[in-house]
Amino acid sequence: MGNRSDEISKIVTRAIIHKQLLPGCKLSEQTLADIFSVSRAVVRQALIRLSEDGLVTMERNRGAFVSKPTYREAVEIYDALTILEQGVAAQLSGRLGAQGWAELRHHVELQHKAVEEKNDQLSDQLGSGFHEVLVRLSRNTVIQQMHAQLIRRTALLRSLVSSRFDYCGLLHDHGVLIDLLEQGKIAEAQELIAVHHHNVVKGYLMDDEPQPEIDTREALSRYVSQEA
């Protein structure tokens, strides 16, 4: 049961991140069981996993729905990211090898190109990716897992709301952060991380407009076929 439920949770996660399943969308156990040709018990395990990640909300007597985060939740998510990344900054500052610094700088170069081309979608992906690379370089698998869960929740935020991000400013922060870390300026790097995430949160424009009806079977069909 475990492996199959894990596969289902991964597919549903991808569909949410790629905006095929929108916040508030109902996830019927029976519909999902039919789509994946499994029992409702297997689907229930997948939904529980997704609820633990904050991607799905389980409501008594109503079922499961794609989560619809609030502005307060957005603040809490980015506060948690700040705490994790400040710890990583203290670990990496002045200690990362040449290959690690080069990887971070190369990522920033890719971001520069995306911003210059006004490719907001790619800029979003690379922006989150920079923080994932930073945390991966810590080589702490527990922190990486916690960070990855939070990053998945930021993807849900982006699927829910429109935004006005200052991509140039956020990109500039990444370059400055590398310089500060390389120079061993831990306190300054940690402060920049806090300000950076605060500015990201300010870029979200929470919208309470109702989402369109989603055909769950159609939304998941291409992901299921990819797994086949």
Task: Give a brief description.
The protein is mainly alpha-helical and 228 residues long. It is built from ten helices and five strands; from the N terminus they run H-E-H-H-E-E-H-H-H-H-E-H-H-E-H. Helix 1 packs across helix 3 and helix 6 (120-136) packs parallel to helix 8.
Could you describe the 3D structure shown?
- It is built from ten helices and five strands, in the order αβααββααααβααβα.
- The protein folds into two domains: about 1-70 and about 215-225, Arc Repressor Mutant, subunit A (Orthogonal Bundle); about 70-205, Four Helix Bundle (Hemerythrin (Met), subunit A).
- The strands form two sheets. A three-stranded antiparallel sheet has the order 1-3-2. It has a two-stranded antiparallel sheet with strand order 4-5.
- The longest helix is centred in the middle third of the chain and has 22 residues, at about 70-90.
- By secondary structure, it is mainly alpha-helical.
- The model has no long low-confidence stretch (mean pLDDT about 90).
- The chain starts with a helix and ends with a helix.
- The chain is elongated and about 55 Å long.
